[in-house]
Specification:
CATH architecture of chain A: 2-Layer Sandwich
CATH topology of chain A: Dna Ligase, domain 1
Structural class of chain A: alpha+beta
Largest interface: A-B, 36 and 36 residues
Helix content of chain A: 25-40%
Shape of chain A: globular
CATH superfamily of chain A: Ferric-uptake regulator, C-terminal dimerisarion domain
CATH class of chain A: Alpha Beta
Mean pLDDT of chain A: 92
Strand order of the largest sheet of chain A: 4-3-5
Oligomer: homodimer
Chain lengths: 145, 145
Amino acid sequence: MNYKAILSQKGYRLSAPRKQIIELLEVADVALSPQQIHNQLQQNGSALGLVSVYRTLGLLTELGLVTILYDPQLNPGYVLRTQGHHHHIVCQNCHKALEFPATNDIDSLVERVEKQTSFQVRDHLLQLFGLCPDCKQPDSKGVLS
Amino acid sequence: MNYKAILSQKGYRLSAPRKQIIELLEVADVALSPQQIHNQLQQNGSALGLVSVYRTLGLLTELGLVTILYDPQLNPGYVLRTQGHHHHIVCQNCHKALEFPATNDIDSLVERVEKQTSFQVRDHLLQLFGLCPDCKQPDSKGVLS
DNA sequence: TTCCTTATTGAAAATTCTTTTCAATTAGAA
DNA sequence: TTCTAATTGAAAAGAATTTTCAATAAGGAA
């Protein structure tokens, strides 16, 4: 991941808090709320303040390095974004989040909506919800919600 | 709108607060936050408490009568939902929100993702962002954000 | 390497958002 | 009209997020 390049290119410093948060998100397989990030870093022995978590997430979002996931069952959570246009699919049972590449599948939908509504479409938010391979098996992880 | 039927069918009463909030959402063309709903009702002379706004929105969401819109520039806002499967498109300039009917445009995308990820897709969140007819005209509503 | 400047952090407090509690009220059935 | 349970309002509690400002530290310059 080239987050170091992106930070310094924009004149931001590569501080310990930023490094820690990015590295935590890199190994997380679920979207994490600011609280959760703070908790996990504390458990890893870091003294990072919650305020810094908020600030860092704000910056990383601005830089396009992370993005918010809106799981209706949860508070908004943050996940790392890789290069290129992606969306996410989230497990409704264990909340595992996975990125998948966008293709032009929705171009025709966008065209249709532009015709129907006279809006000019410039962006979209697409998140899929369902069951991950593990939770599809009814007996593997307990009761489905 | 048949919200009265839906409420009483499920054993809920048709109280004044519920009526007021639904009627406000019926004429709103932007998604409204609980705060905004409270403010607007107060201006209309209602003494409705903010707490009741939260409670009512929670109930109406549960009943499928309203839905949350996640405009990244704004706090989450609520809009009325009509019968059937719809999505929303939101103006990035004036935040006007419009419902449009879902079609099977995204079925092939869902199929593809199921194959690629081995998730079973059960739901999705799709919101488009762009410029409404009024705001497409560069000189009509001022500077674009 | 050491120094210096300025971005960044931490801690506390302020603010805002949302939920809980419980007594008073009211919708709607009897 | 009366009665009862659902609903509301007000206050308070609890979370989430932002602001402020002095202390710290990153990274370029000497």
